[in-house]
Amino acid sequence: MARTTGSHSDITGPRIREVALDLFARRGFAAVSMRQIASGVGVQAGALYNYTPDKQSLLFGLMREHMEELLAARAAREVPDDPLAELEDFTRFHIAHHLERPDAVFISYMELRNLSPENFGLIETLRRAYEDQLEEILKRGVAVGVFDVPDTKIATLALIAMLTGVSTWYRPAGRLSVQQVETIYWDMVRKAVATA
Amino acid sequence: MARTTGSHSDITGPRIREVALDLFARRGFAAVSMRQIASGVGVQAGALYNYTPDKQSLLFGLMREHMEELLAARAAREVPDDPLAELEDFTRFHIAHHLERPDAVFISYMELRNLSPENFGLIETLRRAYEDQLEEILKRGVAVGVFDVPDTKIATLALIAMLTGVSTWYRPAGRLSVQQVETIYWDMVRKAVATA
DNA sequence: GTCTATAGGACGATAGAC
DNA sequence: GTCTATCGTCCTATAGAC
């Protein structure tokens, strides 16, 4: 892992984030030391502090990046007009996006309690903004009579929990493609909010 | 927190488990020290080792107890005969049981990676046994034509993720009773697996 | 059963040389 | 920008007195 002394600012920065994401996801933030991260990158522990003021900022940066990427990817999408097609789009987007970055997904809800109160608040705001997009779809569908849910807020949380749960069991080498998984979940989501 | 020197084996044992459960849930296993647990109990750190061989056994004991209690509570139930009523019973049981012990629920899926491989395997076996009960209900319902799910294994995981997710947002002081929450979720579960 | 004391090591973060 | 060296603190777990 050792590396020759010298300047590598363009490489080291991203590598630190990469290694930290991997180690935090696999062992947990509190169980990972700055020395372990440095070793994975191939530098000494002190060198990390050229890139982050402290360990917690490293975690926060990874989580904020993940949430902002999620919101940006969602915003970049061309969204259909009717609520049913919109909900299908959201479902498929959510599953595909989350399965593409399992480590970031994992730490973003497992390590919330290791954030300072300020940082926690910032992440929660981003998470709320994302959830609100789903709730708005449900509200529109209820308004025009294509959905029937007793409580849009709870339905939102229930559906997101269900969809995000894919990350806990999906393995790319398994028997199902991402598209097949999307379709199976969409079938359940569609029916769960359908008019009786 | 200090306590007079002396024998308290009948009190200290349960208190250690109680304090550990609370601290592990609030801050995470790796972030909690034996000294902090001892301080919460009102003894010195060394005294803990009269009750547990090490920190990890303490965690494992809490998780195993939680899973065994879950299976026992489920087994003690009188289960209705038709799949639809059975599924409603499972849904309401799962929600009520989990909302009664949020800390144990929390650590039981957040701290899996802090278990040794052997202990992890034991907990996974118990978890699988519980999940299998739901899958059997779904299979029976599909067999007699009252449920329509494309994949019972995935539906099982999806429904459990949705139901367990209640623990992340429910607060007893909130606007809804446990019964109301059960009913809202049952409405979604019922429709999600219904025949089209 | 609990205490005090400690072994033996890892931690986060910083200072100063190059 | 990275290194080596280190400060001060905390950790798990054990030993031996009471």
Automatic annotation (TrEMBL), chains A, B:
A Pfam family: TetR_N
Chaperone among keywords: no
Record domain HTH tetR-type: where: 10-70
Keywords associated with the record: DNA-binding, Transcription, Transcription regulation
SUPFAM superfamilies: Homeodomain-like (SSF46689), Tetracyclin repressor-like, C-terminal domain (SSF48498)
InterPro entries linked to this entry: Homeodomain-like_sf, HTH-type_TetR-like_transc_reg, HTH_TetR, KstR2_TetR_C, Tet_transcr_reg_TetR-rel_C_sf
DNA-binding interval(s): 33-52
Gene Ontology molecular functions: DNA-binding transcription factor activity; transcription cis-regulatory region binding
Keyword hit for Transcription regulation: yes
Protein name: TetR family transcriptional regulator
Taxonomic classification: Bacteria, Pseudomonadati, Pseudomonadota, Alphaproteobacteria, Rhodobacterales
